[in-house]
Each structure stands twice: as C-alpha cells, then as structure tokens.
Write a structure and sequence with these properties.
By secondary structure, the protein is α+β, with helices and mostly antiparallel strands. It has one domain (about 5-79): Hypothetical protein (Metal Transport, Frataxin, Chain A), CATH 3.30.920.30. The protein contains 3 helices and 5 strands, in the order E-H-E-E-E-E-H-H. It has helices spanning about 10-20, 55-65, 70-79; strands at about 5-10, 25, 30-35, 40-50, 50-55. The chain has a 3-stranded antiparallel sheet with strand order 2-3-4. The longest helix is centred in the first third of the chain and has 10 residues, at about 10-20. The chain is globular and about 35 Å long.
C-alpha cells in the first residue's frame, strides 16, 4: 500500500470520498459532505475548499468520519 498523500488534489479526494458513500451537500469556502449509513444514521464531513488538501487535514477528516487509513488509501490508489 502506498504512502499517505502529503498534498492531495481536492478533486481526487472528493472523488474518493464519493466512492466511499459521501455526497456533496454544500460547496463554498468549505465542502460539506454527508454519508447515509445502513443503520439510519448520517455521517457529516467538512473539508476546506482548497486546491490541495494537506496530509494532516486529510487524516483528521478520516478520523472524524470513521474511515480507516487502509480503506481510504485503497480507494485513493484506484482513483
């Protein structure tokens, strides 16, 4: 499995998150996304609307959204 991206392109990150079940709700200064879970709950996600997403910011987003590093990297490498 590859290394965690340091400065990931926003478009690729959004594409990967959409593949993991998130949809964009709002896009302004920040991008708000939400995932509807099988048990009826919703997982919100907010990330900055920059051209690239820093590695530390991306790790925080994954932690808050309960996405494992391995799950994200597998989808990231395919995208």
């Amino acid at each position: 499995m590859g290394a965690f991206p340091k400065d990931a392109p926003k478009r690729k990150v959004v594409k990967v998150l959409e593949e993991l079940g998130f949809t964009i709700v709002r896009e302004r200064e920040h991008i708000a996304m939400v995932r509807n879970n099988g048990d009826g709950t919703r997982t919100p996600l907010t990330m900055p609307n920059h051209l690239t997403i820093k590695g530390a910011t991306l790790r925080a987003i994954l932690t808050q959204s309960n996405i494992s590093r391995e799950e994200f990297l597998a989808a990231y490498e395919k995208a």
